[in-house]
Amino acid sequence: MKPTSKTRGRPPTTQARVIAELRRRIQQGDWRASRQLPSRAALAKQLGVSLMTLQRAMVALERAGWIESRGAAGTVVARRAPTRPVYALLLPYPADHPVGFTLFHRALVAAARDIERQQDCRFELVHAQAGRFAEAELARLTAAIDEQRVNGLIQVNYPGFLTQTPLWRPNRQVPVAALTYTGEVLGVPAISFSMSDWTQQALDLVVRAGCRRVALLGIWPRDSAPMATYRRQLAGHGLTGPDWWQMYLHPYSAASAREWLQALLALPAARRPEALLIADDNLVTDATAGLAAGDARLLVVAHYNAPRPPKTHVPVEWLGNDCVALLRAAAAVIEAQRRGDSVTTRTVLPPVRPPAGEPRQ
């Protein structure tokens, strides 16, 4: 992971810091199930806080199921304490939304389940409705935060709509990380992938294959910064591709990729592309269907989000994003905030190739 800008720290409140530290000790096994904790006076001295602050933290931990009070016998770690950290993964659309719940969102859910199977942590999926929480869902999440049942929030896409909810109250002090393609937004550290790194590595594959003429199908307008970067990279590799070989399509209009590719494939062999970069996984299925319908054979470098690639109709070279690494990086940023450490304003993860063979579909 590489930070791309200065670090920023936002210390949690004293009570939140105490809760985080006690949970950390339970999670890492310093205090095992049913073991008696030190006295409140001893804990307050260790942590450098008042007895009142310590008592409030203990009440919150007991309410959340981490500890049990046994009167004169003291306080013990609960027999079924939720020792794995829990992160709320805030998704902008419901899972059954035909377009808004993209392949990226599906890959994130699959990655969350993969991580859970490794017993590292858990993810609470919270689905909004086009960026707005239903009242019942918001109440459930707010209660989980107040009762210290989640370590932090992972906001998929930009965190703006959180500012319209009680989750954004400064005194709540819940750590948040955002999965975006830009840097820090509204003070929320961002974890992302770099599409300029993706196009750079995709063009490296084109050069190694001996191709010279390249077309690109992506989701950025021709006058956008990513497309300007791509054109510089294309020239830097000594490759060619006229502007009309660089197609911008919204995922809603992915079916139009077939018509564009048919026009390209109708060119004489010496004037048509030798390679095609498909820079968004939501375009892969329709684009490769268009290629399968023609006779021309191109080198195809296709984007995907591990561990859930799209369906493809022709052989492709996969180059994509590791959503498991993305979620782990977000969790690390949240835990750093909980400790009061400085965190990077943006963490950028590199593109990945499948470890062996084609990824599962």
Please give the structural blueprint.
Layout: E1 2-3, E2 7-9, H1 14-27, H2 40-47, H3 51-63, E3 67-69, E4 75-77, E5 86-91, H4 103-117, E6 122-127, H5 135-146, E7 152-156, E8 176-179, E9 190-193, H6 195-208, E10 214-218, H7 225-236, E11 246-248, H8 256-265, E12 275-278, H9 284-292, E13 299-306, E14 317-322, H10 323-339, E15 342-344, E16 346-349
Parallel strand pairs: 5-6, 5-7, 7-8, 8-9, 9-16, 10-11, 10-12, 12-13, 13-14
Antiparallel strand pairs: 1-16, 2-15, 3-4
Helix pairs in contact: 1-3, 2-3, 4-10, 6-7, 8-9
Feature tags:
7-stranded mixed sheet, 5-stranded parallel sheet, single chain, alpha/beta, 361 residues
Structural summary, described in words:
The protein is an alpha/beta fold. The protein has ten helices and 16 strands. The chain has a seven-stranded mixed β-sheet, sandwiched between helices. The protein has a five-stranded parallel β-sheet with strand order 11-10-12-13-14. β10, α7 and β11 (246-248) form a beta-alpha-beta unit. α6 packs parallel to α7 (225-236). The two termini are 27 Å apart. Mean pLDDT is 86; it is low at 1-12.
Number of strands: 16
* Gross morphology: elongated
Number of DSSP helices?
A: 10
| Cα-atom radius of gyration | 24 Å
- How is the main sheet built? 7 strands, mixed
Which regions have little confidence, pLDDT < 50, spanning 5+ residues? 1-12
Q: What number is the mean pLDDT?
A: 86
- Secondary structure class reads alpha/beta
Helix proportion range: 25-40%
Taking the alpha carbons of the first and last residues, their distance comes to 27 Å
Strands of the widest sheet, in order across it, are 1-16-9-8-7-5-6
Strand content: 15-25%
What is the N-to-C order of secondary-structure elements (H for helix, E for strand)? Answer: EEHHHEEEHEHEEEHEHEHEHEEHEE
